[in-house]
Amino acid sequence: MMKNNNSIQKPKSQDFETLLESFLAAQADEKDAGTFSYKGYTYVVPGHERSEKECSFSGLCFSWGARSFTPEKGEPARFFIDGRGGVNERFSLYMEVTDCGDGDEACPTAFYVYREGEPRPLAYHVGGQITGFYSQNDFTTLESPLTPGYYFLLADGLVDDNEPPVFETLDDYLCLPFVVMESGEKLAHPVALSASASRSENTLEDGPWTSGMLRLKLRLSAPMQAGHELSAICYTEDWRQMAHDERLQAANKRREPTLQLHFRSDLIWMPGRYTVILSHNSEPFASATFDYRGEADMPCVCRTLEAEDAETLLAKSLATHLAWKHTRDFSGMTRLRLQLAALLPKSDYNSFCREQQLAELCENIYAAVSADVLFHARRLAYCLPGMLNYCTTETRQVDCKAWVAEDNPDVLMDERTSHAMTLYNIGVLCSAEGRACLTALEEAVEDSFTFWALTLCGTDAELQRLFACSPVLDRHVRPEYRFRVEAPLVSDTLHALQRTIGETAFRLDAAAENELACQVMQCHDAVSLWSKDERLSYVMRGLVGRVKQRIREQYDATRKPTRKELVTIKAEDIALADWIQTLTKASGASDSIDEQAFAESMKELEAMVGLRALKETLSTTFCRVRFEEHRRRMGLPVAEETASHIIFTGNPGTGKTTVARLLGRIYRALGLLSKGEVISTERRELVGEYIGQTEEKMNAILRRARGNVLFIDEAYSLCTDSDDRRDYGRHVVESLLPVLTEPHPDMVVILAGYDDEMERLLQSNPGLRSRFPYKFHFDDYTADELMQIAGHTLERGGYRLTPEALELLREAVEDAVKHKDRFFANARWVNRFVTVGILPAMARRVMAADATGKEVELYSTVERADVAEAIRLQASPSAAPSRPRIGFKA
After folding, report:
1. Containing structural domain, residue 406
2. Residue 154 CA to chain centroid, in angstroms?
3. Could you tell me which residue ranges the AAA+ ATPase domain spans (predicted)?
């Protein structure tokens, strides 16, 4: 059985006891000590328990204080002394998984840290391992601070079966050498005087756009000192790492001011600007920039970097900061990474406070991230709190469409304390149904006493509209926190395709790399839009399919192909344009119905309480659409497609907005809409204040509605009983008519409102009625249905009703239904009755009670008194909400 494994060792004791134990252990060690030789020196191994049983491991990480390296990830085995910590910092050895074989018996292990040339260990850990997860082995404290030099870790009781091995074998032990160096922050750095980049003629024989070697000849003002490290990382123009090289200056080697750095990359070198960041003992001190256009030799421009430069901060973050490392392969970050790096000095203060165990500065940060693809914006927003050190405790992403559908928008904002909250699908906040949520959001943003962070995600158009609707948000999201994820560069797209190929057993030869790069440049508009699954489909069906076809056609029984030939992709196998053309044809001829998405949306529609007649009518309609689609694919004649505009009638709270949202998804699944979102609006957003403004607003909303459902609530307010032609609401209807007459508008218009008023609207314009082939009436909910809705609301929150509370709630609901008028808010009322009436009453009762011993039951059980209190406070609809006024001026 796998267990958490913090190693088996004695608990820490007081200082005197520790000294005493160390003295007694040293006496015993002298008697049982062993020796071994390493690099010409003899070392002493203190006596410890040994066994034939050994422990295998994976995920090893060696740390010293806050610094660490993981050999299995290829990280350099080194620590930098930065003046912080000193002797108080311990060595620790972590292993993610340990395996000691069968049985629960522990494997004795021992770990020692030596400095080369010094016979006795500086620190050690003696204990045992058991089969399990996460073994932590903390070493004894150092007697004196570490100094720069060469060290090694000696392990006994471990077996290294990793590929490649993590340790070196040393007699009966395992050995892991590492270096301790002085941090470059306070060192004097050489100056980069000149540099030149080059690729060999042999490398360019198969074409300029290939992976492999690029060399950088660098001349410094002074040679590197012995024991110091020069590292160089080559970045693309959008600051993605291409390759790196590092040189540790050995004491016994001649030091030269001119160095030859080698950048071997598995990625294809594409045309563009590259920047090499040079670091001295991990501290960036210079950059060398060059443009690659396929030539063999490239001059470089060298520049000295200061500690506060954005390039310095960015390079250090990309190299060491986990959140920044997550963004290494993000596309469209050309300008964005430097913009983010410029904000790092603000966050460094909190890092310093954390190291000094001081209170961090908690600043409310309000940001906006825009992108053409919402996923790219959300991905960056998720990383921002870690990248810029927000000091928040939780990251949360919220779909505004789901938020708007909730009955109480304040609940989400009440939970924001210490959270980094990301909102997406923000366009709905500008609609009538999102007005309450937008108000709650504005109030939260203006509240400077609650610590939290906010990131708004959307397209450029969505953010512009939101800021236009909300001057409050526009004012609080400062320019430096407005981020734009750009369209991917050609190199982004190509390297993503390369990584997909790298996940298979197949490999590109040099000529194929060059051909793939050329074709991606030609077809970038199409290939840049591919998802990960679409890239994998091209690789496995397009590329690999052509490889197999080529091998089959060239197969010679007298000479069978080698394994390498079977998995090598050649230039002739690359045919991107043909694959894109095949996809285009297949898309036109393939099934336009997404059966899975259709089934999921229909399941959600069926789960709605009540609406039986509506569900049956919609089901019949959708069945007819699918029937016609299947006939079309069989080559049978089908009826001419017509627009599917709809009239919704019914009282408030009967589910019209929710059904409209589901219709968008269903029509998208049926291939009737290209996007399937819901654009909700009302008279206030459509009618202008002067001549021509209404038409401008309508043109803008119709552009947004293409591919979507345009939902106009309270549509009857567009036409009044007045014959005054200056009523601009009539212009809205007139602007709609051209769209309503289009046979294939890629849009569904839904007009919603009260039954009688909607009838008068249809009578007001002779062309309207015929343009809406479907009319659905939403009946008021019965008392039983309202009880179901109330039950669902309570169940989602983890509440349950006592039988007495259930009985009183039913009486209240039945009374409300019995005395309702046509403006009764149905589901909206019962949800509000629960969330604004019953639950606050329950909260007051619980907080006034002695909760000792029965907290869970007390906090989850709704009593009859809670329902009675809600009724007493007139949470029930004794007064119906006023009916929306008709015929107001614009």
Report:
1. 337-485
2. 40
3. 642-782
- 58 φ, ψ (degrees, to nearest 5): -150, 160
Distance CA 836, CA 330 (A): 44
CB 719 within 8 A of CB 763: no
Structure tokens at 429: 């906040």
CA angle 584/588/589 to nearest 5° reads: 115
Task: Compute the half-sphere exposure of residue 717: CA atoms within 13 Å on the CB side of its CA.
Answer: 19
882, part of any domain: no
Q: Is the pLDDT of residue 590 over 60?
A: no
Average the pLDDT over each of 141-150, 365-374, 584-593 and give the range with the smallest value.
584-593
Same domain for 625 and 572: no
**What does the block give as tokens for 671?**
């291939």
Rounded average pLDDT over 542-553: 88
Nearest to 752 by CA among 665, 655, 674: 655
Q: Which residues of 750-784 are buried (b: 16+ CB within 10 A; e: fewer)?
A: bbbbbeebbbebbebbeebeebbeebbebbbbebe
* Kind of pairing between the strands at 55-64 and 41-45: unpaired
SS (H, E, C) 250-282: CCCCCCCCEEEEEEEECCCCCCEEEEEEEEECC
Helix (H) or strand (E) holding 126: strand 123-129
- Structural domain includes residue 883: no
Tokens of 308: 């506060």
How many domains is the chain partitioned into structurally? 6
What number is the average pLDDT over the span 798-803? 87
Specify if 660 maps to a domain.
yes
Measure the N-to-C terminal CA separation of the chain; round to a whole number of Å: 73
Element (H, E) at 846: helix 839-847
pLDDT of 295 strictly over 90 = yes
Tally of CB atoms within 10 A around 480 = 12
Assess whether 173 and 85 both reside in one domain.
Answer: yes
Tokens of 587: 């898309």
User: Given a cut of 50, is residue 735 above it in pLDDT?
Assistant: yes
Position 772 pLDDT exceeds 80: yes
Look up the CATH number of the domain holding residue 753.
3.40.50.300
For residues 413 and 407, is the Cβ–Cβ distance under 8 A?
Answer: no
Distance of CA 353 to CAs 15, 365, 370, Å? 29, 18, 32
